[in-house]
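fold-stage: in
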Amino acid sequence: MQQKLNLFTSFPTIKNNVETYILIIGDGLCSIQLAYYLQNLNEDAMIITQNQIFSNIHPYPLLTAQQGYLYNSLSTRYDTYFAKLYYNANQETIQDIERIIRKHHLNCNFKQCDSILYANNYIDIKKLENEYECYRNLQIPCNFYQSTNSNPYTTLIMHYQASYHPIHYIQGLLSTIPNFPIYENCKIKDIKENENNYTVYCNGYTIQTDKIIFINPQSIDFINQLYQPYLIQQQLHIKNASDFAIPLNNKLSFYSPTQQNYTLLTQTTFDQIPFVGKIYKDNENLLFVAGCSIWEPLLSCLSAKLLLSHILEKHNLYRFVFSPQRIDFCNEAFQQNNSISL
């Protein structure tokens, strides 16, 4: 059963026609993080959600760039430069989150820690060895250990990662933007493109907006038609543990601050990198995020910073890594690798 969290915070619904320069459609950490950035720049923006704003917040605490057998895969599919950019983007985001927490004195149990992958059978140990060689080539700070006894056991440790309490972090962010307009239970009936802007129809009212950002859209038909074939459903079993070790050979296990076992339903992409950017390559006014997977606590914040660069039309070194348009040159690879293994 997927766990839904109630943060005991409610927001109004749309009850009149409104205008805004930037409309964020969708709930969760990415929406709130983007709202934080926009509020600090005094941008005219608002959030609407089709459900309650916190209906899809999940309490796993890892902030880690170590995301399965990822870097060997990225180096093979693309190249080492691409893989290193992905690592750097994640590391910079951890630093950004820490700066925000310290700036506003957010009480969310943030702490630096190592992240660990481990394997205990021959096939996975070989994969982990290949991942370690990739770390060395990319100059990722790490340690690699192999057991010397009769039971095979191998660990790969990535240094300078972090953990926090995501619910407390979101609550803290919200406390810094108390006047940002957020509306929930807004049922979108239609979206119409006008000559110079867009009209969103919901709850019998209209929202006039210049830019629309869709966060994890699952019921927007024109987005689903373009990108749903490249999104893969994940079912991950979360359980409490004494550390943040991630076994790769069977089920993924994480420490849960709620001290409960639960199953998490998420989406990832064909290459395990979220889609962040333009829905159509020639239109900067329609943006979206999808496929943050179980690494949402980190990748949602990373995605918010990338979206901000699009909104402000500023250069960002990592845009092309996360660009949804990478499917244009990965169609053949996707057909050969339409499933993933973490």
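fold-stage: in (second)
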Amino acid sequence: MLQARRLVNPMSPDAETWIADNAIRLFESLGHLEIERDPQTSQPVAWFITPPALTPLAEPGQWALSGFRSQAWLEQLRERAEMLGCAPVVERSGTMTTVRVTADSAVRIEVLHHRFSDSAGIPLRLCREEFSRALVMKLPTHLDSATRLPRAPQPSVSAPAYEATRGRWDTDGRTRSALRRVSEFPRRYVIEHAGSHRYVDVRAGKYLAAAKASVSYLRYDEERKILTVPERAELPSLFERVAVMCSGEMPRRGDGSVQYVSVPGDVALRLAEKLGMRLERPE
């Protein structure tokens, strides 16, 4: 694995570090990177690029390309795909590029997989099970996963507390909350759970604190198949991967919210159940 310390500096909690951290998490949710994180700070300490793979999306006839790719490798894939009647779709947003392959049958994808893997210098893997539904079924509940977090000392009552109902940090020590920020350099967060205190990733901690306060961050538009959460309350790691890999597209940001698109109703409901939250729907 390659060292990731230069990508995110845990000694610098400024906006640039927050942006870099979100970029790394996005690469992770799209399946391009696997990240090793420090058990106390949740900061990346090492990473590797995943092998290239085609993964079925929730939308029938759509596969997402994740992992390593070069421009020459992508051009080879495009040529082979078009010869077989498949249509690669490349979308760019800033410096981020996503690639999806459209085909009218899984057989064409199987043929593409075999022919391309035999000719390309880097083999192409093929996932035959729809990723998002398979992963969300295997995930433990968020509360259950909290019991496996590393233990931490009890935080000071003056440590900044996360106010789940308003989605902000209270630094005056008056808020009662299960989640507290116990250090700034590097940042560490501690959640109170089942009579003990444990180090937690900030995203996971926010959702645990909200669930304990009976607050839901999940809004779902069934007609548009859009799952919306507040900005700065993006879904925790594997839960975000489930939502992102429904479409293979990057989340949309704006108006103080983050939107995950093309999320089927059953997947949205299962995410809410695993996170211990209600799935709010527009009236």
